[in-house]
Amino acid sequence: QVHLVESGGGLVQPGGSLRLSCAASRIIFGVYIMGWYRQAPGKQRELVASITSGGSTNYVDSLKGRFTISRDNAKNTVFLQMNSLKPEDTAVYYCNAHLGNFNYWGQGTQVIVSS
To answer: Which residues of the chain are under the pLDDT cut of 70?
Structure first.
C-alpha cells in the first residue's frame, strides 16, 4: 500500500514561512506527478501546486511568487516552501501522487497562520 506522509505544518505568524515535506513509500516516486492541495474549514479541497516527474511546475495563480514546490526523486520526497504566509493560507495541506488512474493522498498536515 502506498504511503504519503506529510510533515512540517504548524502555527506561524502572518508573514512567516513554513516548509512542508511529503515522504512517499511503496511507490515508484519518480514517475508520479506530485501535488499539494489544501482544504480550509468549510471549503473544498483545492490544488496549490504540482510538479511532474521532469520537474515542470504548476501553481494556482493566486499563490505564484509565495509558494514553491520541489521534489527530490532520490529521497522520494516532495516539498512545499511557503513564504509570506497569510491568515487565509490556514488549511490542512495534503500531498497527492497521481499517475493515470492511480491517485494517492496523504493524511494531511495542519497549517495555521495567526498572530
So the answer is: none
Amino acid (one-letter) located at 110? Q
Angle at 35 between CA 31 and CA 37, to 5 degrees: 160
Which SS3 state, helix, strand or coil, does residue 74 take?
Answer: helix
User: Exposed, middle or buried: residue 87 (CB in 10 Å: 0-12, 13-18, 19+)?
Assistant: exposed
Q: What pLDDT is attached to residue 7? A: 97
**The predicted structure's pLDDT at residue 31:** 87
Q: How many CB atoms lie within 10 A of CB 64?
A: 12
CA distance 56 to 106: 22
